[in-house]
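S., here's the first fold you wanted:
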Amino acid sequence: MKDENETEFPGSIEDVLEDAARNLQKHPVTGHSIARMSDGGGELVPLQLEERRLIHREESVRRQSDAFREIRTRLLGIAGQQNFVTLVVSVSPRSGGSFVARNLAAAFAFDEAKTSLLIDCNLRYPSQHKALGVEPAAGGLIDFLEQPTLGIEPVLYRTGIARLRLIPAGKARENSGEYFSSFRMSTMLDSLRCRYPDRYLFLDGPAIKGSPDARILSDLADFVVVVAGYGRDTPAAIGQAVTNFDPEKMAGVVFNHMP
């Protein structure tokens, strides 16, 4: 019998994560409950969504919404019935990879039988929390990876879009490869994916050009979507960028007009 002031510490952080992953898999939550997630009446109206350059169901952005729905249909067709992790990366900076990532996540959240989780993995230049109007008071991805015993719930933020949650990047870091290649990162993704069978994860990665992180992140993803800036990235640059990834994971190249 332990003294009331005695504290039992786990053998390692990795043990904690492994136990958490096993527990999540032992106690799955049905898709019905999570599919009805809302933001408790705090959902954004179409005008607010357009101000943040986000798609919605109204006619004013029908063309843009249909474009992202088409990408969603392609990914679902490739994957079949299984949920998946998609990495979205641009060929070069300012080609619009983050724009595509958050709108693709929003397109999946349109479906009331699915939920989306967007994870900002651009640790050098994080942008998703600003674009979605989220104030990450409790930190983000890096904060969780450095202190996983705190739990993932504090860094899961509402976005104003039903069934779409965000994990912001957290503290800015120059050397991020060590986090992405860590056991903690892969275990976190496995846990988030396994807990809900209707949850689809989207990793917003840094530009391929000038950073090894995109390739490292691709090892954690089921699919890779490469974003090319229309009139910005040359065919040669696009071709070179695609060679960084496993051909079996390449879902396609999206040409984007938006920065």
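And the second, which I think is the more interesting of the pair:
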Amino acid sequence: MSIVRLWKKGAPFFLLFGLLVIWELALKVLKIEPWLLPAPSAIMKEGMASFQSLSEHVVSTVQLSIIGFLIGSLIGFLIASLLHLFPRAKDAVYPLLILSQNIPIIVLAPLLVIWFGFGMLPKLIVIMLVCFFPVAVSSMDGFRQIPYELKHYFRMMGASKGQLFWKLELPHSLPYIFSGLKISATYSVMGAVISEWLGAKSGVGVYMTLASSSFRTDRVFVSIFIIMTLSLLFFAVITIAERYFVAWKRKEDKSDEAAH
């Protein structure tokens, strides 16, 4: 592997490592107190020391994130499909979808506890609210991007509205749908952490709250790094799935590059 190719593949890791080194050295030079801003080495040490107690919290957050992501993404896709198949309803419903994203989750969360208690349901609703919108919007954009010529050809062949959707519109909108899924996958972890502030017994959000109340800044940063890592893992899983389900798009792009 050449140096240029190695740099292209590892540039983000090299940059992150450089930032961590600068962070470590800056704390020593400026002599900042560890309780105010801990060093990366101290954060890593605390993370390794708390690994056993952290694992239960991480598993709880992962489970909540996956369930909420799947339900929220499915709702978003169904809403987009219905609005596409019934365009007259779109003008009335679409503004409401936008308004739903202008409601602060922090303000809505206490109301969900009052309405639904401290169980799983209010937490899933929080995650669903942050996950469904990117999928719904990207799916509707994908449905609109179908070339008119292909639609006209299918109609000339006698395809019904359902056949047009399943055979043409849905397959060709998959790249857009996966773009929304990747955004929702990263939002799901954030939504899960926020929902855990509602009164959960375990989860990274609970661990972060306890660390913050006891002024354990190192543990707060451990929680932040865990959230970032989980978001990247979820994003990577969706990216791998996209490569499998949208393989035709990659072949099409390569053929276009070869033509040019």
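Why I say that: The chain is about 85% helix and 0% strand. Confidence is low (pLDDT under 50) at residues 255-259.

Talk tomorrow,
H.
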